[in-house]
Structure formats: C-alpha cells, structure tokens
Specification:
The protein contains eleven helices and 17 strands. The protein starts with 5 loop residues before the first helix and ends with a strand. Strand 3 and strand 4 form a beta hairpin. The protein is an alpha+beta fold. The protein has a nine-stranded mixed beta sheet, with helices on both faces. Helix content is 30%, strand content 26%. The longest helix has 22 residues. InterPro entries: DACNV, DNA_integrity_DisA_N_sf. This is Diadenylate cyclase.
Length: 400
C-alpha cells in the first residue's frame, strides 16, 4: 500500500463531509491573484494547510516542539462578526503562512486554547492573528475548518469542533462516518427541519458535553434513546424493579428546545417529548433575548456534564430532553456474544473484551445491543471518549 499524502487527507475530508461544492470553491472574490492565475480551489487550500502544518509540527522553536492549530476562514470578517463566537487578536501586519513562521508562533497560540487565524490574502495564505474559540458564553457553533498538529508528524482536520480525518504514521484515520447517520437523525429530531445553521449543529452541543466530561476527569456515561422512545421503553413503567435506581427529572431538562430557542426558531418547534417551546417572554431587546437564550444553553450544558458524575447514566431522548440521571441501565435483551472495536481504517472486526472494562462499558454495550437507533457516549477516567452503537448487527466501540 502506498503511503498517504496531504492530497489523500484532503480527499478523505471532502468525501466524508459530502463537500463536492466546497471542493470546487475558489478564494474569496476580494482576494487578489495574478492576472494569469486562476484562484486556487478549497481542495488546494486545504492540501496546503495540511502539508504546512505537517512540516511545522516537526520544526523546533528554541529547541522545543510545540503543538499547533490553525483555523481557516475565507474572509477575516468571519472571525470578527457576531457569529461564530471568536475573539481575534489581530496582527498589524499579516504573517506569511509557512512552516517556519508557524513554528515560531506556535508557543503564543497555545493550541488547543487558541488557533492561528488563516485567511487568503493577495492570492496566498496568511496568518492574520490569534483566534480564541467561543470566547463568550453564547455557545455559537461554527463550521470553519480547523487543522491541528498535536504532535510531530500527526495532522487532524476538523469541521467546526468535530474531528473528521487524521493523518498519522503514513495512514489516514477517520472516525466519523458510522456515527454520522445517527447524529443526523438526532439533529433532524431536534431541529424539526429548521434551516438555521445553529439549530442544525446539534452534534456540536453533544460534543461539548463529552468534552466537558473529559475535562472534569471523573468519567461518565451519556445515553440517547431512539426516536419515539422514553423511560418506559427503557425501564418499564414507573415504580417497577428496574426503575428503582433512576433519578427521574420532572419536568425534563429541555436541551433540544433550548438549542432551538437559541437559533430563534422556537415558534415553529413541535417537540417530540415533554418539552415545550418557551412561549412568551417579557419585553426586551432581541440582543437581550439572545443573551438569555445563550446563558440558558450554557447552564444546561454545564449541568448535564455535572449529572454525568453521579454513578449511573444520564438518559436523553432522541430530541435531547434529559429525562433521568444516575440510571442503572437494564441488561441486554439477549446475550452479547461479542463486542467489536473500530479500527483506524473503519473496519469493525477487532474484538473488544468487556471483561477488561468497567461497568460503564458493559452498561453502554447493553444499552445499544439490539437497538441500532440508540447511541451511548462514554468517557473513561483516563480521558478516553468513545461511542457504543449497534452497526450492521454488531455492537461497536467507536473512539472519538
């Protein structure tokens, strides 16, 4: 098998994202290029980003190697507008985008807390400043492409906050494709076909919960039921033996509705569950409403992360209503003969022994066994995060 190259990583990213139009996208109209040159496509730009980060990751600054990350925007205004939420420290003069300058700036950018902001300028790429993501509590999500080099010779490409593809040791690793259909289903359930980009980035909020669990360092289990399912489908009717360990929430924590409120689409939301739109609000400016909705989402996300520290699972509906926490999940309907771990090349044939894992792993596997529309997010105390899903009749452990 031939070694992989930056162009292969680019091709894998564009394929997984379904970005045929993006592949042909040119530089911003305002970017100047030589009269006899055609503007480079996004695919060419991404290949340049990956290749430059790869070499910058192996360059030293004062004898030290430093991790580094860049975020690409077609226009500088994308960092300075209200959405997405970035705090930009803008350089007076742009810096050339090459491995030497990236290595020099890496200690100042301090990835993953901040990124170097890269934009097209006069037909080439330039570092415009240092961008800090989500610097205010709006939890606005973006779809900007981020390229990071966490260690020498390793390059990962993100769409917003989700890692899509990673290059390491001559191989391309992708973790997302098998998760995407189910995440798309959850997104559609929450967004109810609303066009708002914010509403349709529900997976970003799920990732924020998982990231919060990792940062807390306590481990935890978050499970999402299938469409139309509730606690009765999981535990039976309230009060039976399986239900005794469950800490039910009445009313449920309506994260899905809060996300839709934040997107400004609450008027047309028809929730599939106990949560209702927020309805009337006191008279206030739209900016005050936006801040209130942002703070509400922020509080809910923080609370959900804390709930995962209680022994047991946090249970969410498919519409992301938090129904219960501290739940002892019921055993599988049938004996799980084998659990598989996804490999970097997306095969699902590596056996995973649950005997060597804790109770969370066994509970997560039991939760999804026989239910292909469910998903379980698990974080170990060592910080490893993964999902359990039933894929093609197999219970699969899929690292994030």
């Amino acid at each position: 098998m031939r070694p992989k190259y930056p162009a292969d990583v680019t091709a894998a990213f564009l394929e997984l994202q379904g970005q045929a139009p993006l592949a042909a996208q040119k530089l911003a109209p305002g970017a100047r290029v030589a009269p006899d040159e055609a503007p480079p496509s996004f695919a060419a730009i991404l290949t340049q980003l990956i290749e430059t980060l790869f070499f910058a990751s192996m360059a030293t600054e004062e004898g030290r190697l430093n991790p580094i990350g860049v975020v690409f925007a077609e226009r500088l205004a994308e960092f300075e507008s209200g959405e997405p939420a970035w705090d930009l420290v803008r350089f007076g003069s742009p810096v050339a985008f090459d491995a030497e300058h990236l290595a020099n700036l890496a200690p100042a950018s301090a990835w993953p807390r901040s990124f170097l902001a890269v934009v097209p300028l006069e037909g080439s790429l330039a570092v415009a400043g240092i961008a800090v993501p989500h610097g205010r509590p709006s939890f606005a999500l973006d779809q900007l492409v981020r390229v990071v080099a966490p260690k020498p010779g390793v390059v990962a490409v993100y769409r917003g906050e989700w890692e899509v593809v990673r290059y390491e040791r001559g191989a391309v690793r992708t973790w997302m494709p098998k998760n995407l259909p189910l995440l798309d289903s959850i997104e559609r359930t929450v967004a109810r076909d609303q066009a708002s980009a914010l509403a349709r980035n529900v997976r970003g909020y799920l990732l924020r919960i998982v990231e919060g669990m990792v940062e807390l360092g306590r481990g935890g289990l978050l499970v999402v039921l299938g469409p139309g399912e509730g606690l009765p489908q999981l535990f039976g009717e309230e009060g039976n033996q399986l239900d005794t360990e469950v800490k039910r929430l009445t009313p449920a924590l309506c994260l899905g509705s809060a996300i839709l409120d934040l997107a400004g689409a609450h008027e047309t939301h028809l929730p599939d569950g106990p949560c209702q739109p927020s309805g009337g609000r006191p008279a206030a400016s739209e900016s005050e409403h936006a801040l209130q909705r942002s703070e509400r989402v922020s509080r809910l996300l923080e609370l959900i992360v804390r709930l995962t520290t209680v022994d047991g699972a946090v249970v969410m509906s498919h519409a992301l209503d938090v129904l219960a926490f501290g739940a002892k999940l019921p055993p599988p309907r049938a004996i799980i003969s084998e659990v598989f771990a996804a490999t970097p090349d997306q095969r699902m044939d590596a056996s995973l022994s649950l005997d060597a894992r804790g109770t969370r792993h066994r509970a997560a596997a039991a939760f999804v066994a026989g239910y292909p529309e469910r998903i379980a997010f698990i974080v170990s105390q060592d910080g490893n995060a993964a999902t359990f899903q039933e894929i093609e009749g197999k219970v699969v452990y899929w690292p994030l």
